[in-house]
Amino acid sequence: MIKNGSTIMKIIMCLFISSFLFCGQALSSQKTHTVFFEGEENELHVYRIKGTQSGKTLLIIGGIQGDEPGGYLAADFYADFLLEKGNLIVVPRANFPSILKMERQINQDMNRKFLDDNISNYETKVVGVLKKLICESDCFLNLHEGSGFYSQNWESEERNPEKFGQSIIIDNSVLQGKEIDLEKMAGRVVEKINAGIENKGHFFHVNNHMTNHPDSIHKEQLRSATYYAYNTCKIPAFGIESAKILPLEQKVRQHIHAINGFMDMLEIIPKNPNIDLKKPEMQYMIISVNNSIPVVVEEMQRLKINKGDTIKVHDIVANYERGLSVDVLGLGNQFNDLKNELVVHESTRIEVKKDFYKCGSVFIDIDPQASKGLSKVSVVETEAVSDLRFKLRINNARLFADNNSRVTVRMGDILVIEDILSGKVDPSNYVVNFKGFVGNLDNNSGEDRGYAIPISEKSLLKRYSEGNKGKIYHVITTVDGKEVGKIFIDVQP
Ligand SMILES: [Zn+2]
After folding, report:
1. Mean per-residue pLDDT for 433-446?
2. Using an 8 Å Cβ cutoff, are 71 and 63 in contact?
3. What is the pLDDT of residue 377?
4. N or C: which end of the chain has fewer CB within 10 A?
5. Co-location of 228 and 376 in the same domain
């Protein structure tokens, strides 16, 4: 059933850099994902997380026996961690074939192959990798579910020294040669886990197997992964056993408490919460016209409608779920027009924001055929038009100004820079700044689209005009700080 092919190992390097965009200090935690035996039934995924600061390395192995989901589901969370300090090696599913069958083992118990190994099977190959990982680490947790409830004294068939449930297993009270007090380490974590358990009958206990002692009742553990860690790699190792009989959520939670307890002791500090300030990007929005079936309009597409149609933006899909809003330029309110029904008489644009950040556009075009009642609603692509134009309103008259052109206004006029028109480029990527006018006194972002700009000596700062004369002002369009367009506002008395 298991083919005996050569070991295929593929390393996928993923470098996750979480940067603090706004304080300018880039801190990084690295993550690598290694796939062993790729394409085989026993494909093995290993996640290594390296902290920003160096420190101890904790190995977490789940699913070495496939019928113990409390362990491997808990381990799985840690594959997504980023660390401030220290390192993790996470093997969430050591024995994937047995997990798929929800069985303890396929050919052999994988956790009984660490001492000697006379039978060659896929379990042998996986154990070979695990052994190397154990010796690379400073501490090792093997996550399990155990039958019954461990108790130091015989209480009942289900609660006695032979049972494993609700215990942290150690192979000896100290790690000989290194004088590390395993009993004390396990005891401290047991206390932490128990703080979250109400039912005293479910308390965790330290379970010392005294594995290599002549009187040990758990001699089979000489073949286990933790004993290999103890005896060969000389590192502290613990078997974490949630009682099989408990609800799955509780078992996972206990394992997480245990892992966190050991991380804390080893001074392995998670980066929490994960800070990933990726650039917001809208993918599409869902718009209905005249209450008909909503259509999907993607970033920079154009929705053609008839003059006087009602539109409603139902939803936005972006790489963020929260903080999204839409502004139908020139219509609705100045904050959020999501789910507003708006009657459209002129072509406009719908701008999407994630919080303050502009992250997408779609265009609403009034079809010139509309007045004849011939056109239907349709979604089309934006054509490539490279030249940039300014869409303005002076008092109530609409005006389109070509790039680098001159626009005449009079004292007392109200000028609105409605938008930038430029074919394939999303207008929300531009910043349009009337030099000498401050739209938002609290936050002068330089973006002046949409403001009613009174042409008066009071509203405009003369020192920004040509020669400080208060006659000619500049409206400058930039992308990423680079000037890409300009018009001249000529103020007449
Ligand atoms: Zn187990």
Report:
1. 81
2. yes
3. 76
4. C
5. no
CA 141 to ligand 1 center in whole angstroms: 12
Going by pLDDT thresholds of 50, 70 and 90, the confidence category of residue 447 is confident
How close is the Cα of 257 to the center of ligand 1, in Å? 18
Q: Kindly give the distance from the C-alpha atom of residue 144 to the centroid of ligand 1, in angstroms, as a whole number.
A: 4
Expressed in angstroms and rounded, the spacing between residue 164 Cα and the centre of ligand 1 is 9
| Residue 1 maps to a domain | no
pTM over 0.70: no
- Across all residues in the chain, what is the average pLDDT? 89
The CATH number of the domain holding residue 202 is 3.40.630.10
How far away, in angstroms, is 244 Cα from ligand 1 center? 10
Residues 43 and 176 in one domain: yes
Question: For 164-174, what is the mean pLDDT?
Answer: 97
Ligand 1 center to 278 CA (angstroms): 40
129-154: average pLDDT: 97
**pLDDT (mean) for 173-197:** 95
My answer on whether 189 and 313 are in the same domain is no
For residues 448 and 432, the answer to whether their CB atoms sit within 8 Å is: yes
Question: pLDDT tens across 28-64, in order?
Answer: 778 999 999 988 888 899 999 999 999 999 999 999 9
Task: Find the 255 Cα to ligand 1 centroid distance in Å.
Answer: 13
CB atoms within 10 A of CB 172: 18
